[in-house]
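[job 4471] stage=fold_predict status=RUNNING
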Amino acid sequence: MAYTAEDLAQIRKAILDLASGLRVARVTKDGRTIEYSGSDDLDKLQQLERQIVSSLDLKRSRRTRTRQVITSKGL
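[job 4471] inference complete, writing structure tokens
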């Protein structure tokens, strides 16, 4: 499943809502609305957040640096 930055923002808002005391947090994805409530669902949301973050990080290309050191004594 492909996630977007908007999905991540919705999940983070739902986590914040549950952590701040709201009884029910709603997340909408592809026309489906899912309701989360309670500490068990907070754990599920945090796990989903980690999954989305790792999915989005894989899409980014990371540049690596290579440095070459040359000395006159062969080290």
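[job 4471] summary: The radius of gyration is 20 Å.
[job 4471] exit 0
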